[in-house]
Amino acid sequence: MKTLYLILLVVIFIRVTVISGQEIAAVKIHSSNESGDNASANNLNSGESKKITVFNFDVNNIVPEELKKVPEEMTETHFLGDQIAKKMYVFKDLYTYREVIAIGNPTIRTFFNKPRIHHSVKKIEKYIKRSVNKGEMTLDDATAMFNNVLDIAINIYNMNTDQFEDSLRLAGNATDIILVFNKVRLNYNYVNR
Fold it and tell me: Is the pTM higher than 0.85?
């Protein structure tokens, strides 16, 4: 019973820490400011510290190659355009698969690889569509944001994303999920030797 109580207490503490914006778990932790210079760090009052934690993934940019493989007749239309439609096809191809439930039963069930990432991307897509329809976001801003999210999701598919997925799990709504995606840094042209 004490162990269960301790685990619950740790989970609550982590949730409060992430919600308050103090720190998000990272694959590789780097303390720096967003601009990369010391000017904004020097503007902090004494006693304050600014720690920005990011998820760094060393990846080969597989998006261009994957987009070449997409058959034109297979892509659906997307409200953000053809490029996003192709990336959604690649995303679905990577993150979903279908299997027959039982022999003789024609029902096919859809399963998800890395369901936390899949569901987060779909949640962001719905949020963006709703924001564009309400006029809260321009189509160009929406396209740029979702393009970035899809690039991240596609490129990190084969990576160890456990800590990233934990942060997505702790994010409450679509705007929190977008903030987690904004903490991802893709280091392209990584060569695994």
Answer: no
Structural domain span for residue 110: 2-36+49-187
> Tokens at residue 103, please?
């022999």
**Which residue in the block uniquely carries the two structure tokens 């569901």?**
119
Closest CA to 125 of 149, 92, 94: 149
Pair type for strands 55-58 and 184-187: parallel
What total of structural domains would you count in the chain?
1
Residues 102-161 have pLDDT tens digits of 777 777 777 888 999 999 999 999 999 999 999 999 999 999 999 999 999 999 999 999
Alpha-carbon span 174 to 132, nearest angstrom: 14
Query: Is residue 103 assigned to a domain?
Result: yes
**Is 175 contained in some domain?**
yes
Give a yes or no: residue 44 inside a domain. Answer: no
In-domain check, residue 153: yes
At 144-193, the pLDDT tens digits run 999 999 999 999 999 999 999 999 999 989 999 999 999 999 988 754 44
Q: Is the dihedral of CA 77, 78, 79, 82 positive or negative?
A: negative
Q: Minimal CA–CA distance to 124: which of 142, 141, 110?
A: 142
| 8 A C-beta contact, residue 169 and residue 13 | no
